[in-house]
Amino acid sequence: MASGVFTGAKSAFGAVRDVQGDQAERPLVLCGEKDVLDPVRTVLAEGAVAGNQALQIYALRRLQKDDSKQLAKAGAVVYGGRLQNSLDDATRTDLEVVGAAKRPKLGLLESLDMPSPAATEASRIRGIEPDDLIPFRRGQLPIERALREIADRTEASGPFLAASLPAFRPYVTDRLIESAARRNARLALMIFIPGADMPVLTATQMRLVLRIAACYGEEISQQRAIELLGVLGAGFGFRQLARSMLDFIPVAGWVLQSGIAYAGTRAVGTAAVQYFERGAIADVSNVRAFAEGARVELQQLVDRVRSEGVDGLRERFREMR
Known about the structure:
Blueprint: H1 2-21, E1 28-32, H2 34-45, E2 55-57, H3 67-71, E3 76-83, H4 89-100, E4 105-111, H5 117-122, E5 133-137, H6 143-152, H7 158-164, H8 169-190, H9 198-215, H10 222-232, H11 235-248, H12 253-277, H13 285-308, H14 313-320
Parallel strand pairs: 1-2, 1-3, 3-4, 4-5
Helix pairs in contact: 1-9, 1-10, 7-8, 7-9, 8-9, 8-12, 9-10, 9-12, 11-12, 11-13, 12-13
């Protein structure tokens, strides 16, 4: 028992170092056409403290070559532009400047008609990839998609931006949870020795909880990490379920093991979000209850797979994801 506590504390300290070391405080910078950017800016600014430097409006005009130096300081750049039938020189220059900044970027390109040949041209500009652009018909900006895409590009600045921009926080925490869950699912596929994956998967969950804490402006410290170890306690139950399947489904059990690692990590992350949303400081009982409820649902899934046999595994695995 003492060894387990020591190992947990040591892992917590390591997680704190990792999270503290990979965080940045770079702003989210919006530039380009004001009317195109306004819907995104309005949502991002909702609930933010006046004078907040996390969201910066820069150069609501045509960009100049030297603007790339300022944009290079951003955590991510969001550009708004309008497209004609073909890519006009001014918009091309704007995108060249954005590409030259070499920062994560998203271009919101409004067009009269879709699909837009001009958007295809834009994706060929140096420093711009097709996935960096969201072309859309005038007046039909897919705001939810845009916010998710922005969150995907915030990288190390994500927790800082989430803490400063409450309306943006759910998009960042969703990205963190999904990324950690996918990582644990891959790790569970790669590690075949029963129990050997537990410390690795729990370390990912620990870092996830600390990053979510940072999204709510919580101090990331060793004391806080130890306190939050309770959040992860129910996570071990997910691994026990996975190992119990190996004897029943010796060939396909590792697939379900990966699915349980994915679902268990998502449950821990979702529980942590609820914990911080409620403003709890010391009592983690509500979080553990949430995670335990998710574990019970997974146990029911395992029972169904046992009764349905291997043929029902694939469909149930899709349900779990």
